[in-house]
Amino acid sequence: MVTLADLQVRQLGECRHESPLAKYIAARRTNDHYVDESDRVLFDDTVHLVQDHGVPLTELPTLEPGGPRRQVFFPPGRTKVGIVTCGGLCPGLNDVIRGLVMELNTHYGVTDVVGFRNGYAGLVPAHGYEPIALTTERVASINMQGGTILGTSRGAQDSEVMVDRLVELGIDILFVIGGDGSIRGASKIAAVARGRGLDLSVIGIPKTIDNDIPFIGQSFGFQTAFTVAAQSIAAAQVEAQSAVNGVGLVQLMGRHAGFIACYAALANHHADFVLIPEVPFALDGESGFLAALQRRVAERGSAVVVVAEGAGQDLMADRAGTDASGNRKLGDIGRYLEAAIVGHYRALGRELTLKYLKPSYSIRSVPAKAFDSVYCVRLAQAAAHAGMAGRTDMVVGRRHNRFVHVPIDIVVSHRNEVAPDGDLWLSVLESTAQPPEMR
Amino acid sequence: MVTLADLQVRQLGECRHESPLAKYIAARRTNDHYVDESDRVLFDDTVHLVQDHGVPLTELPTLEPGGPRRQVFFPPGRTKVGIVTCGGLCPGLNDVIRGLVMELNTHYGVTDVVGFRNGYAGLVPAHGYEPIALTTERVASINMQGGTILGTSRGAQDSEVMVDRLVELGIDILFVIGGDGSIRGASKIAAVARGRGLDLSVIGIPKTIDNDIPFIGQSFGFQTAFTVAAQSIAAAQVEAQSAVNGVGLVQLMGRHAGFIACYAALANHHADFVLIPEVPFALDGESGFLAALQRRVAERGSAVVVVAEGAGQDLMADRAGTDASGNRKLGDIGRYLEAAIVGHYRALGRELTLKYLKPSYSIRSVPAKAFDSVYCVRLAQAAAHAGMAGRTDMVVGRRHNRFVHVPIDIVVSHRNEVAPDGDLWLSVLESTAQPPEMR
Amino acid sequence: MVTLADLQVRQLGECRHESPLAKYIAARRTNDHYVDESDRVLFDDTVHLVQDHGVPLTELPTLEPGGPRRQVFFPPGRTKVGIVTCGGLCPGLNDVIRGLVMELNTHYGVTDVVGFRNGYAGLVPAHGYEPIALTTERVASINMQGGTILGTSRGAQDSEVMVDRLVELGIDILFVIGGDGSIRGASKIAAVARGRGLDLSVIGIPKTIDNDIPFIGQSFGFQTAFTVAAQSIAAAQVEAQSAVNGVGLVQLMGRHAGFIACYAALANHHADFVLIPEVPFALDGESGFLAALQRRVAERGSAVVVVAEGAGQDLMADRAGTDASGNRKLGDIGRYLEAAIVGHYRALGRELTLKYLKPSYSIRSVPAKAFDSVYCVRLAQAAAHAGMAGRTDMVVGRRHNRFVHVPIDIVVSHRNEVAPDGDLWLSVLESTAQPPEMR
Amino acid sequence: MVTLADLQVRQLGECRHESPLAKYIAARRTNDHYVDESDRVLFDDTVHLVQDHGVPLTELPTLEPGGPRRQVFFPPGRTKVGIVTCGGLCPGLNDVIRGLVMELNTHYGVTDVVGFRNGYAGLVPAHGYEPIALTTERVASINMQGGTILGTSRGAQDSEVMVDRLVELGIDILFVIGGDGSIRGASKIAAVARGRGLDLSVIGIPKTIDNDIPFIGQSFGFQTAFTVAAQSIAAAQVEAQSAVNGVGLVQLMGRHAGFIACYAALANHHADFVLIPEVPFALDGESGFLAALQRRVAERGSAVVVVAEGAGQDLMADRAGTDASGNRKLGDIGRYLEAAIVGHYRALGRELTLKYLKPSYSIRSVPAKAFDSVYCVRLAQAAAHAGMAGRTDMVVGRRHNRFVHVPIDIVVSHRNEVAPDGDLWLSVLESTAQPPEMR
């Protein structure tokens, strides 16, 4: 079980500078805008958890709330900041960049913000990518564009080299917008800096289009992603319904977690089957997927199948042999299912019109829709506050409708998944009326 | 302080029928899909609240979770259901209707569902509106349309007459989709039925485009509403920036709560001022709104002002005299501000191009966007479970990422508002950089 | 050269019934709503064509204008109509169906309209698809859905059997909404009916998402198609610009004609290369496509390539051997180019990030956007007038801003293509600044 | 009747410089990309016009085609260009600016392009607006924004002062993007320059969201405008259908021409009445609008009325007295109809729910949709060619699917209107089934 100590966010030292945000708070009757240092957010909220474990109330795991502090660590107006975006595209990256620059500039007087280009590679001089200045003019309208104006790349770089570069440039706070691996990388940078005794704050803003990072409520870009994904399900449905024995098969993102598949299917209202990594299924047999699909097509004239890219990986291992290397590479479940369905109908001698859609890039590259846009700017504000307050080796998250600080160790300790016995999956089962077990 | 007793949902009697949802749950390893009757959701979650009040853990206020029960009250397949939509339009009404019909039909075998037309008036025979049959075919695609296929109307009707009508039609469960007033009306219907000893379940699904009903997390349609509202702010911004000393003034919904104004402004990124009912402001004087607006226009060449319809009501009372009748009618703050700004610039002898937008109906009438679509179907599922389980005089809500049952008395006890010292308003202040106090 | 005789539309016989549209026209000052039988639309309009060929003005090829006739052939109110949709999906099918039903019903009192299901197969009893009644209630909102409510299928059916079926059902007018092949099929049906001396009107409404049918101005659904296609180019661009040496490769529809590729690229503004069937190109060599692409990537850091599915077919024949059978099947130019580009960069030892998008179904299945919606309803109105007036073996088209009647023989005589020396292709060259010749 | 001489575009002098576009054309087999100086586009195309007037074929009115010339007037690479946007916003302004800058830069080597700010006021030094440099970087993504990055203003300025300023800045070509009045202003500038013997080319790109400028086919932004307008009609319809005796009343743009109202109504499919300036109507009496509306509401339960802002002006003159000044100001027909309808139902003692929408700014300010985006870039290309070729005192237009040059005198000689006896209005009457005469 997670303990209070695990959740303690590292702090570089004493906060000695008056926060410029005083102007928003002094005039108000209460001081509640400021976060009281003794305030904590409960880590979990169901009574029975508390009761079952007999933990005293005062020792319950709690998280530090995000938000502006009265005293900040870095001197406003004299702090230098770097921003880097890593990994695959996700709607909202430019909103976060814009939000950081605006918040630092407007409220902390921090005008010296640079963007490192093309992911962590931009922190390694050998690649030759010069950082670019991020002014408020430069970022004013970037939220209308998808992608990231900084460019991105995958893969790790040498932490010592990156810290050398940060020192060379005089960076005080580094904001890392990236996924699982990049957040681990941020933790290594923080560790190297700590080892050298440097006052370098490293703040992560978790990015995962699959929504599989824990402790952050919903990840930014996720709502935009399933909104666009639902359009592909609609397209598949139109194609299926316009054909004789039409089957629309849509492969969506979701390597380890089926959130996009579940939400997009619920939003669309018309999916007949949702297949996700968390819920295994068999193809053959009376209670298998193919027989269930055949029954649905016979009943309704057509069917729509939504499959997350990480679903049914065991099926391909069984038939095609397991992967040789240690690093497991995902089999192409979409094409595998397409072949299986076509083969099934051919064996039956029945007509079939299957249309296969895989809308990956057209989802990742769109600008953030309104909700995500709001969420990104607020995440960026919370991140700016955390960095200015001298926090490090943490990410900003959201829990119980509050922004929180989460140590990176905790964030990368496990993945967020669709609980097969939780209410989201139940909603999907209720909506699709697919067999709960296809084994 | 709210006590445990206040939160207790009324229950018609013992649940004796096996739930047809057993098929989704029996095959799984755990039984967690079913809600344990002893399970509770904490009413509030910050440790200091608990600590300050010294309430024993076991007596903390908790809510009953939503979801399917193993035993249900009404006999599946032999239950008759009515649905009514009341009050102003809100994105998602048809999604909720569709979700109820689908869930009841597919999972409880309830095929006898009728829709009452034109709000509560449809429950009063004198109006002559016959209820319409809601089959799965009829509702299959209604989510693509805005509005409500049942029609709606405002205003209360005689509860005794409505209960007579429900009895006449043999209705077991009445789902009321409506706002504050309509939910109170639902409670009266439940009370009359209770007084007569009838086994009538009345379940509310709170509808408020302003997001001002408490205990339901976000109200359905709210995200769609602020997404569309943000487009009007964008239009105002384009007009303002294309003109000499351009001011874009956008009046949005929000009689008592400024949520739409706050979220739409954050989503748009470019608002310069947000004015909401919860935060009073003065027009004149050095620190008043007009001077602040003038400074911003001078600085940036243009400005965008977002005002909720309930904002600044005190200003109009001061100048135009208070309202005579008891029922306070809102003054038109948009037109009032327009005149004030135009007058201010005329007095200064400066050029001004003011464009005023008030996009009310074009927001209320759109189909729900993806997130709200998901939320509506899940709310409908939870409502169907509650009704079938024999709950009554309650609404379905969402709290701490769980669907919950909330007694109507509690729901109508106060309004949800933007806390002037909360983090949402702080985000708005950070984003607009408007003066925190304009007095 | 096309002669006047070629353009003469067949007419079943004398028009003896007063048109019910008289009410729209009688009250007006002029009679111009009615089409004068002597009126003709010039087949071509540039003076030099006339001058070069010395054709007398009175013998210039002209088309019969569409629109309501004062006298119609079929008796209003006692006519029976059938509608069939054939071939691949295209935005606007349901708009045309709706338009036909509404026009026939409202203005000609024709309430007996049936829809044949699943293309021409629905006209062949052996397939067992019963026609469905198309009432105004049934079609009222179908324009909000993509696809066709009638279903569709590809392939021809026996004309004699189909005419038997039409006679059996008492159909007077058959509207065929379909492509090249289906329109030929419509002509065969008309010929069989003519051979039997039947008063059967067969009116085609040309459907081609590729816009490659001549004499119809722009085909319905085309604007919607390139609007949606432009979004994929935008996605490819975002992905390309966010990566190191990023190349976005988008394969669009266009078997014989590159219109969608050209318009989508112009709409998007950011394509670097457009490859279409009408303009051959070489891959290798200093002036070939790969070298040009490499130069553009070096210059701008990334590039977007738009390729129509019918482009570069000669390249694949050269390398992979020609197709054995008579019926040429298209090679997969998208995947072919992907491999070629990846191979080219690998050979150079340079980094490359290529993202390949092929958005076919998500384009075909969307509801028609506003312009196409208008165009569909007007095409349907013109088709209804033509059918009621007893025209047959023709399609409705649009030329010089007028609706016209075009004999099917003429329509299928050749394809509409992007002229390599025309102003559309020049606009594309100007917009992309790609080398005009890559040989 | 328009004569050939009227259509002659002014030419500053002999074209002596080789066009840089040679690279696109030399390599091709034919020379057809170049416009032959003897080529002409027929001014009108119906045979009967020619026959009725007995005009010899060689003397038919024709227009000069747009497009690149082999020889251009201004020296590529050494030409200085100015751009100004005037009047109300219209979707596509930024697309045209971008298109001009890109074409001039990429194909004519013209890098010295300035944008005058805030309309013609930007050409008058006294206003103090400095022109801004328009580089390809600056304009690369401006098409994603609505409005005009140059700002705009209404009203004329002194032509002599403006020519002084153009001379001072060394401008060779001035592109004016504006409406009726601004195009007249451009002609005055050209006349002043001509009077001084200056080689100043003034090229207009007609802008009119109402589509009321003749000789340009469809005006840019028009399709975007009616697409967005159709959404307001949809909103009005949803509101009307959800209410008891619901009437949705939508006022759209269209001072003199009802094109937006007609197209938006056709696109939406569900309007019951369309009222435009070109077709007068009476309110009262058995055959008047109010009685017709009442019948429709009784029949269908609700109705949607679309009214162009210039419609029914005679009604208000009758009741409220004619306008005193010479410059006629439009009465507010929307509010007038609202009052009339409410009064009519009140007099009848019948329930009515009227919702009034007037979406002006939200239409004008959106970015251009795909079709308009294509059209704008092509118009800009044609304008750039015309300017470089030394044409002046003309606008670029489109006729018979070709870009053409039209002298300004001709363009401002009359307005484009919806012909009451033309096929567009007939389509509207067919679609709405409203009474053709409401007098």
Automatic annotation (TrEMBL), chains A, B, C, D:
Catalytic residue positions: D210 (proton acceptor)
Annotated positions binding ATP: G88, R154, G155, G179, D180, G181, S182
Site (Important for substrate specificity): G181
ATP-binding found in the keyword field: yes
Pfam families linked to this entry: PFK
Cofactor(s) listed: Mg(2+)
Domain Phosphofructokinase: 80-385
GO BP: any one term: fructose 6-phosphate metabolic process
Residues annotated as binding substrate: T208, I209, D210, M253, G254, R255, E309, Y361, S362, I363, R364
Keyword field contains Calcium: no
EC id: 2.7.1.11
Gene Ontology cellular-component terms listed: cytoplasm
Signal peptide residue numbers: none
Metabolic or biological pathway: Carbohydrate degradation; glycolysis; D-glyceraldehyde 3-phosphate and glycerone phosphate from D-glucose: step 3/4
Family: Belongs to the phosphofructokinase type A (PFKA) family. PPi-dependent PFK group II subfamily. Atypical ATP-dependent clade 'X' sub-subfamily.
Subunit structure: Homodimer.
Annotated function: Catalyzes the phosphorylation of D-fructose 6-phosphate to fructose 1,6-bisphosphate by ATP, the first committing step of glycolysis.
Full protein name: ATP-dependent 6-phosphofructokinase
